[in-house]
Structures are given as structure tokens and as C-alpha cells.
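Internal ticket - ligand job 507, 3NM:
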Amino acid sequence: MKVDYSLYLVTDSSLVPKNTTLLAQIESALQGGTTIVQLREKELETGPFIALGLQVKALTQRYHVPLIINDRLDVAQAIDADGVHIGQDDMPLVQARKILGPTKIIGVSVYNQKEANDAIANGADYLGIGAVWDTSTKKIKRSPLGIQGVQDVLRLMDVPIPTVAIGGIHVSNAQELMIGSASGTRHLDGLAIVSAIIASSDPKQTCQAFSGLLNNVFGSFEPPIALDTSSIVEKSIKLVDLLKQTGPMVHHITNYVVINDNANATLALGASPIMSTNTEEIDDLAAVNDALLLNMGTLNDIDAMILAAQTNTRHGHPVVLDPVGAGATQFRKDTVARFLKECNLSVIKGNGGEILSMANRGGRSRGVDSVGNNGGEANAVLAVSELAKNNGCVVVMTGPMDYISDGTRVFVVENGHPMMALITGSGCMASSVVACFQAVSEDPLIGAVAGMLTITIASELAMKRPEVKGPGTFRAALLDELYTISNSPELIRTHARLREIPLARSN
Ligand SMILES: Cc1ncc(COP(=O)(O)OP(=O)(O)O)c(N)n1
Ligand SMILES: Cc1nc(C(=O)O)sc1CCOP(=O)(O)O
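stdout (C-alpha cells):
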């Protein structure tokens, strides 16, 4: 579930104006664009807290907005809230996660780099950074961070996860905070506010003011610098080196036809494969993992795959889906729909039949193989770009040409040898390679291009080997050439055939 943290209302019934009620204030705030609500009621006993929680939940559900409970896991469980917010002196995050399970949202209050990185390592879904400024709503124990202090926490986070700032925030200082705390590509995802909304004589109007201001600010953040194709090739070379130097762990939940090739392709690039399907160890593995690959080939362990995806997302690790045979059977269609709904995918990588069928642009599969043509380049470009945009991820469609898009740009990798289609699992190996690059690339689009350049160039080099006579010798040579590229990444520079298709012209 993708959560919008931008306008985060935290309640306090002691601040509600005399002529109205807490529920009326919350509803008015929801009408004004509040995107998430935290029920924070310090004085309520358990019974009344649960009763109030049920009323607020009915309200937030009507507006399709998540409800978080402050501190009280028991209340959150009793009303099946969407999650909890805990402070540094509350129940430790590790225990809270054990109790609530992987799917509930857990937010943690942090004040500095250490608290932030501990919370991230232990699987927090978001951070509440504060207090930014003095506030009369609560007695603050540590001196206010100011805008610079918030920026320091954002900059020093090991892995970027969603963040909101809290403490003394009003319409008058919100823009200054949002812009001043941003650094590079990092910025706050939202503002958590108590008194400015809950004590307002018109919460709807106050929230509209916050929303308008936030929309402007988010629109002003610089998009990442768009690299041209030769810069992406150079980045790919650096990523091959980084893979070898850092040896990231790549957890695969894959199929039993290709599992050995998946593991060997991963090893050939210097990464470390783990192929567990056991739900008992997903938490422990996610804590030390770097990327997750889900492969639908033999389609077992679907619940384990979804649990692993959610757990890895909480840890900030990219999740790659290889939707093998998507569209071939109703069961596979339903399973793909579950993955799209329940997981936060970084990359979807499939063959023409799979991607076109997911994008509703034709696409035929016989079993797990793509058959027929893909409707030409224009159709391929629309399929990858639309699927990517609609799901907020990168999409790779393999074939004689590989089309790769993040919804804003489309690249074509023109490398590759037709022999790839004659060995089983070459597409699955490509997915392993893409997952390895996701583990080391900050930009999933560049990671996907780097992965596809690497495997397709390896296939061309493999076919040049004198001992390669057909599929059997090619399979072994392909692994060897992945290893060659890992040791000589500059081969990518001499062999890459990478092209960008401007989206506007193709639409
Ligand atoms: C979004 C958000 N951020 C920080 C806090 C503060 O939580 P905590 O440290 O647990 O303090 P209390 O809220 O319990 O006083 C928060 N509630 N929400
Ligand atoms: C609940 C809370 N937590 C804080 C923290 O620093 O963790 S500051 C705070 C109160 C914020 O209220 P207002 O928006 O009215 O200033």
C-alpha cells in the first residue's frame, strides 16, 4: 500500500474549540485534504480510546485515509487500525513489529542520525522528525532541531524512507521548512501537525492552505538530472565495479527450473544469492538483504513472496518481479494483480507476452513462453511506459530488443543474441542480473539498463567463443562471460548499443 504522508494530522482532543467536537474537526480536516490521521489521545483510558478509535476509523475509511494510533498497540489491534506511531521511550520497534506483523504501518519519532538509522534498520515504515520548533502542544525534552537539524537527519539517513517533520508547524512556516530542509534529492514527504489544524476554527480551510502550499513545494523539487545514453553506459560500468566490490545479497524466491542458473548468474557478478522460500526467516533475511527477486515461473509460495516483498520494502530494499507466464492462465492474471496491489515493486521484468498482457496491449503466451509479435516498437514503448507510470516502477520488456521505462523515459537495449531464446531460463537469469544491479543502483531505471546491457553483451561475447556449438555450450559460456564482464566492465563501453526513444514522439 502506497501511503501519502504529505498532510499528516495528529489529534489532541484537549485543543478542540469549545463549540465543536473532535470528530467534526477531523472530518473537516479530511475534507480539506488531510492524507493520514494519527489518533493521539494521552488522557483516554483503554475502553474510551477504543470506542473513539472505532468512530474515527469509520470516518477515515470513508475518505480512504490511513488511521494510525499513537503509542497504544493494544488499541491499534483492537480496532484493526492501519498502524501505530511510537516514540523513543515507547515499546521498542522490534517488539512492536513482532506483535503487529509485516503489513501494519509503524512510524517512529526520531531526533538525530542514530535514532533515524536504528529505526530504518529495524524496519520502520516512516520517521517523524522533531521537534522542529518549540510548541505549546507538548513539553519538548530536547532543544528544537530547527530547519538545519531536520536537513541533517534527512541527509544522514542510510536509506531514504518516508519522513514527516513535527513540532510548531503552521501555514506561515511550512514552506520555509519544506524547502530549507531539502538537500539533493532528499526532502520531507510531509508535515505532521497538531494545533494548527485541530484547534483551527476552520480545519478544512487550514488544510486547503497546507495542501496548496505542499503541492507547490513538491512541484518545485528538482527532478534528478536526466542522463544521456553515453552517461548511462558509463554509470553501468561503475555499477558493475560496485557490484563486485560490495557483493550485495540478493534474495531470490524463484522457480525450480532455473534456480541453479539464477544463483550462478548472481555469483558470476560478485553478488551473493540466497534462495530461501521459508517464511520463518524472511524477517532475518530482509535485515541483511540488499534486493529481492520474485519469479512466478512454477508459481509456488505466493504468500511467502508477498510477505518477503513487504518486509524488504520496509527495509528500503528494491523488489524485482519476473511475472513469468503472466496472462497465460486466469490464476496467473489474479496473482499478478495481487502483486501489483499488495507489493511496492521497483522493477517488473518480463518478456513481450507477459508485459503486453499486463499492459493490456496484446501479448500472447504459450505456457511461460512469449509467442507472436509485439505489435511493433510503438506498441512496446506504450506498454512499458504506461505500465511503469501506472505502477510507479520501472518496466523491462525483453525480446530481440529490450524496452525499458520508468514512465518518463524509454530506452532500448539493442544488444543480445538469438541463442538466448533457445535455453530455458535465460530470461530468468536476466532478472537475477537486473536484481543484482538494483541492489547497488540508486536509480532503478539506470540499474535496469545496466543489468540488461550486462546480460545481453555477455550473450554476444558467449557466442563468439570457439567452443560454443549450441544451447548447451552457450549456457555455460553465458555464465563465463558474465564473469568476464564483472572483471572487465569496460567491455560494456565497447559493445553497448543503447538508444533512447523520446516519449512524446512515440505517443
Ligand atoms: C508523526 C509523529 N511524529 C512524532 C510524534 C511524537 O511521538 P512520541 O515521541 O511518541 O511522542 P508522543 O506523541 O507520544 O507525545 C508523533 N506523535 N507523530
Ligand atoms: C506530538 C509531538 N511530538 C513532537 C516531537 O518532537 O516528537 S512535537 C509534538 C507536538 C506538535 O504539535 P504542534 O503541531 O501543535 O506544534
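Auto-summary: The CA atoms of residues 35 and 64 lie 9 Å apart. The chain has a mean pLDDT of 94.
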